[in-house]
Amino acid sequence: MAASIIVAGRKRAEARRITAPINRLLDLLHTVVPVLNKTQAALLLIVGFGGFSLFLAVLYKTIRRRVFHDVNKLDSTFDAGGNITWSLTAVTVASQFFWPGDILHSVTLTAKIGVAGSFWYSVGVLVNILLFPVFSVSLKTRAPGAKTYLQIFRVRFGRPAHIVFCGFALVTTTMIMTSTLLAGKAMIQSLVEDVSDEFVLMTMAFLFGSYSLVGGLGTTFYVSYFNACLVFIILITFAAKIVYFPPEDLDVSRTKLGNISAIYDTLVCLEGPEGNTERSYLTFQSSLGFLYGTLSVLLGTATTFCDQALWQSRIAAKPLPGVWGFLVGGLIWFTVPMTMASATGISYLVLSYENGNHLLTPNEINEGLATPLVAERILGQAGGVMILTMGTMALMSTGSGEVMGLSSIIIYDIYQVYIKPFRKYLYETQCILCGKTQKGLEKIEQNDHSSHSYSEEDTCCCTPVEKCERCAQDVGKLQSGETLGYNQTYMCSVHGPYRAYQDHLVQTKDWCILFVTISLVPFGLLIFGTGIDLNWMFYCGAILTIPCFIPVIFAIVWAKATCTGLISGALAGLISGVTSALIAASTLEGGLTEFLLNTAHEFTITVGCYTAFLVSLLVCVIVSLLSHNIKSGRDALVEWEKTHQIDNPLNPWHLNFRQELEGADYTYRPSLEQLARAFKPARYSAIIGGLALVVLGIGVMPGVMSIFPVLSLTEFTGWMTFCHVWAVVMGIVVVFVAPIEEIVKVVKQRQMNKRKLTTKEQGKDPDLSTICLNDSN
């Protein structure tokens, strides 16, 4: 509930007369007024944003086919070729985090707490974004062929663990998608007149799924770039208008906005919430703000490490570009909530002071309506359209990412494993093409399944696809436009049946993406009918997903983690977290009869989140230590060989790392030691860069801010100036660096294609791997 503003100075005797209808209605109703009708909104959102996104999808698909010579492959749909540049990764990561955390929720915290609210919230989430590369390098080293993090659970711990954590992954995606739908509903219905829930949901479903269906994951990177550009342009314009330029539609003699000194003088006159130093809105020393910051750390673990959409963005890049992409993406993301919340939240407090009371009810504040209200009050209809544009861009990035993440789980971890597998009753150590034990994995097979001594007849001897001449002929036909159905036969008897199966999966993934997109409408109607708001979903949903965080990390980095330990830890954390939250809520006034109010209370959320995290951690560690069979480093190496062999025989992962593995001598695939050496720069960059930025974010910056009990005018001006300058710097990085890198990449690939064509015309035999597979290098 928002803290009440106690006006220490004058109150207006009566509302002044305003000729602009929007501002007059705002004064009378104290709420957000629509700026567009349904037809205008449909043209802007569906025809404008949706049409432009479809154009980008077609452009991306054309580039991949004509320049990179991609055929319609399943893996390229979900990993975008596996060679996304660091700058495109950065803007995509930032875009996927834009909603609803910063544009709405961070402003809500500023309106409730002051400058400390957005600062501590941003720091909390930033910590997880910066630490993510450290663990993602481990995934790329130990499971470079994995397309989902759930595949690691399947090969290491078997089906029971895989099923349990598929459930957690689906819950995480559901939580994020629910927050996105609630944020979209609040924004669209506040800015567009007479729109139904059905209109809102159908619009968002179209925006999320249309271009994902056409271009796959790669299109989301292109769309995220343009989304980030628009967000930063609007953000910088909006912040500058609030702080440095008096609003044209407001009485300049009465309003404090547009003058940073007047804004400061107004904030000094307001009494903030208890827990703030001197109950000031101008302090970073806030117990409530610090509480929200620690909750943001836990919330960030749930939405970062357990969200397949973010793992997918990381999998789409090579180790080193992926590390730098996430580090820079974190800095880009940090800019938006800090600048947006500092400007908009403070403006809301100033406008409420001038009004004599809050312009919004506590429920409307929790729904995130402070942002569109301030935009309309300051910029009129143009401000509402700007916020609608900004919010829609952020919605599209997050929503499409979740659609692709959920679709990849359904295809790779549900359909391909449990519904229609290519080969039933197959051990994870066995070749999917012939059913025999893969080379180098006989030790695992003996330890896990029998004591049988394997001979050459028991070991896979399938020809690698990059050396298969028949496959080269099959791929040549595919590139010319020929397609075969699931039951039809390719020329290659070794890889042909599995290639036909992959064709079937390609068709299935289209239906899967379509099904997920359409399902958003009934799912959203169900969510809207419950009456939950964005604030409730944002925090209470984390209690359900936090218990999954520790098992995900342990599955990737700890050889002694066991199936029993991870399952018991996750379930114990879930049960204890929910139970403790309900008990805490029952002790508050009204008990569980005020369910939505008391379960979203700060005390309830703190108890539930910390209990779920600590219980999950302790149970996972204790049970795994009691049940593991790792006796030596050799045993640990054998354990990681299970994840090392996750691969698609038609698209071997090692071919995507030919540049990094140049000079390495291997027969079948690079060893773990070779990968560790090749990815050493990425690992060092992740550890040094990530930890340095984390120390800066949670140590140096908070320490400096906490020196000042209450900000003086000079200190307040310096803080606002820092936010705006940093926004401009990050805006330049977003707008210019990503397209330059992408253009250079396309030009280099075209030059490489010309050299290969020249070699072929001269009668020389090119490497079959460059024919059979997409050349991502």
Properties at a glance:
Sodium/glucose cotransporter, two-stranded antiparallel sheet, 30 helices, disordered C terminus
Structural description of this entry:
The protein is mostly helical. Among the domains are: 77-419 and 683-749, Up-down Bundle (Sodium/glucose cotransporter), CATH 1.20.1730; 546-638, no CATH class. 70% of the residues lie in helices and 1% in strands. It contains 30 helices and two strands. A two-stranded antiparallel ribbon has the order 1-2. The chain is globular, with a radius of gyration of 27 Å. The two termini are 53 Å apart. Residues 1-30, 249-253, 449-454 and 768-777 have low confidence and may be disordered.
Low-confidence stretches: 1-30, 249-253, 449-454, 768-777
Helix content: 55-70%
The shape, in one word, is globular
Structural class based on helices, strands and sheet pairing? mainly alpha
Extended strand count? 2
Counted by DSSP, the helix tally is 30
Largest sheet: 2 strands, antiparallel
Distance between the termini: 53 Å
CATH architecture classification of the domain at 77-419 and 683-749: Up-down Bundle
pLDDT average, as an integer?
Answer: 78
Radius of gyration: 27 Å
